[in-house]
């Protein structure tokens, strides 16, 4: 959600989570960018998920 532009929204698809299951996403106390699995970047091609900031 963007306070100045309410047309900007991020959605999460949790269809892959089993029923009656809770999954927790922990956000580190740092600024950064979410890298997409399999996305090409200026530092290479990532094929597996990884954690930023050594967490």
Task: Give a nutshell description of this structure.
The chain has 55 residues and is largely without helices or strands. It contains no helices and 2 strands.
What report would you give on this structure?
- The chain has one domain (1-55).
- 0% of the residues lie in helices and 7% in strands.
- It contains no helices and two strands.
- It has a two-stranded antiparallel sheet.
- A hairpin with a 2-residue loop joins strand 1 (40-41) and strand 2.
- The chain starts with 39 loop residues before the first strand and ends in a 10-residue tail after the last strand.
- The relative contact order is 0.17.
Search tags:
55 residues, little secondary structure, two-stranded antiparallel sheet, 7% strand, extended
> Structural class, from secondary structure content?
little secondary structure
Taking the sheet with the most strands, its summary is:
2 strands, antiparallel
What value does the average pLDDT take?
A: 77
> What is the count of β-strands?
2
Task: Count structural domains.
Answer: 1
Fraction in helix: under 10%
Shape: extended
Rg over alpha carbons: 15 Å
From N to C, what is the helix and strand string?
EE
Could you tell me the strand content as a percent range? 5-15%
Unreliable sequence segments: none
Describe the secondary-structure layout.
Elements: E1 40-41, E2 44-45
Antiparallel strand pairs: 1-2
């Amino acid at each position: 959600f963007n306070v100045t532009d309410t047309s900007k929204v991020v959605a999460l698809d949790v269809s892959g989570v089993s029923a009656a299951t809770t999954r927790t996403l922990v956000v580190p106390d740092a600024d950064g960018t979410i890298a997409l699995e399999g996305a090409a970047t200026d530092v290479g091609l990532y094929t597996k998920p990884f954690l930023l900031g050594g967490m």
